[in-house]
Amino acid sequence: MKHLYLTNKWLLIINAVLFIIPYFGLLFLIILGIIQLIMCVVVIGKFNMLNKSGKTQLIVYSIITSSILILTMLSYNDDLYFNDTLFIFVIITSILLALLHLNITYLLYKNSQDEIN
């Protein structure tokens, strides 16, 4: 669990540094999102190791992430116009979800450390 947390933490730091030039930050945000989705599958496998707060956060993360993925897929359809407001909303939500996922991996890491001690 330590590796998940440290990987997530460093990827988030790299993304924050890349946002000095917003274009690079946005591109890396896509990579960060893909990696966090893979990590989410691993964390779901360790669901019982999370405390109640972590379980709630993971469920919220999964629901919001699924909603954004569906919204993004629908936005490429001609029926739903993908405008700048929706784009900014998706970007801000993605950044907040990245921070939420960092907190989830931290709680998982902390709980695994408590079990060892």
Keywords:
single chain, about 120 residues, mainly alpha, about 85% helix
Describe the structure.
Keywords: Membrane, Transmembrane, Transmembrane helix. The chain crosses the membrane at residues 12-44, 56-74, 86-109. The protein has 117 residues and is an all-alpha fold. It has one domain. It contains four helices and no strands. It has helices at 2-18, 22-45, 52-75, 84-116. Helix 1 (2-18) runs antiparallel to helix 2, helix 1 runs antiparallel to helix 4 and helix 2 packs across helix 4 (84-116). It starts with a helix and ends with a helix. The mean pLDDT is 87.
The average pLDDT score comes to 87
Identify low-pLDDT runs: none
Count of discrete alpha- or pi-helical segments spanning 4 or more residues: 4
Q: What is the strand tally?
A: 0
The share of residues in helices is over 70%
The geometry reads as: globular
Number of domains: 1
Oligomer: single chain
- Radius of gyration of CA atoms, rounded to a whole number: 15 Å
Query: Helix/strand-derived class?
Result: mainly alpha
What is the H-and-E element order?
Answer: HHHH
Blueprint (SSEs and pairs):
Elements: H1 2-18, H2 22-45, H3 52-75, H4 84-116
Describe the structure concisely:
By secondary structure, the chain is mainly alpha-helical.
